[in-house]
Amino acid sequence: KLASGDYDLVIFDVGMLEVGNIARAKDPKIGMVLMTSDKIPSYLPALKQLSVIPQIVSRDEADRTFTVKNILTTTTKLLSKNIFGLEKYLS
User: In angstroms, rounded to a whole number, what is the distance separating the alpha carbons of residues 29 and 5?
Assistant: First the structure.
């Protein structure tokens, strides 16, 4: 899909890190979001494989509402280029 289409944002997990490199090579301005529920030390070595560090969103497997709100807020911030402020994450 990355080869045949143009995208503003790519969301992927640690098992698909190569997607981040492919997306960045095709479009240096593409937004990238890494979704993970793992603790930082477990995926930090994997991040070194990427050509650029993406935005990272923590996924809480036990709290679907929190996860959906986190994804929507991060996506909105990146696509609107209005990335500053934590208030967007607060209810």
Answer: 14
pLDDT tens string 14-73: 888 888 888 888 888 888 888 888 887 887 887 787 777 777 777 777 777 777 777 888
- Three-state DSSP state, 32: strand
Rg (CA), the chain: 13
29 φ, ψ (degrees, to nearest 5): -95, 0
Which region holds residue 33: left if phi is over 0, alpha if psi is between -120 and 50, else beta? beta
Please tell me whether the overall predicted TM-score, pTM, comes out greater than 0.90 for this model. no
Residue 68 and residue 65: Cα distance in Å, rounded?
A: 5
Q: How far apart are CA 11 and CA 17, in angstroms?
A: 10
Quick one: tokens of 54?
């993406």
CB-based contacts of 65: which residues, under 8 Å, 6+ apart? none
CA separation, residue 16 to residues 8, 13, 32, 83 (Å): 18, 5, 12, 24
